[in-house]
Write a structure and sequence with these properties.
Double Stranded RNA Binding Domain, 31% strand, 43% helix, 4 strands, alpha+beta, elongated, 4-stranded mixed beta sheet, 106 residues
Length: 106
């Protein structure tokens, strides 16, 4: 899985980028078929940094989560939490669809 961290209207230190990469990489636990995660940090508003996560998966459209909070790390945590919920929901849909299809055969 490829993780890309980019910044708009500012600069992040290498330590902050590696911390973001480590936190976002944990999303792989929720859905195995993730191929890429693109994280964009928007520092345009000094008081409200925004984080956007775009997850690309095999055989599925991209999932997107946005979050804006008073601190960068809260924005990141909120966006990661939203993405976790989307991945769980998608995985449940796949799992339920398989069970329904297999019960019709018998």
């Amino acid at each position: 899985m490829q993780v890309n961290v980019s910044t708009r209207h500012g600069h992040l230190s290498h330590a902050a980028q590696s911390k973001i990469t480590a936190k976002v990489s944990r999303l792989k636990r929720y859905f195995d078929r993730l191929t890429a995660l693109n994280v964009t940090v928007d520092l345009g508003h000094e008081t409200l940094p925004a984080v956007e996560i775009v997850a690309s998966a095999e055989h599925f459209h991209d999932l997107v989560s946005h979050e804006r909070a008073a601190q960068l790390w809260r924005s990141l945590d909120g966006a990661v939490h939203k993405m976790e919920q989307q991945l769980r929901k998608h995985k449940e849909k796949i799992r339920d669809h398989k069970h329904v299809a297999s019960s019709r055969r018998g």
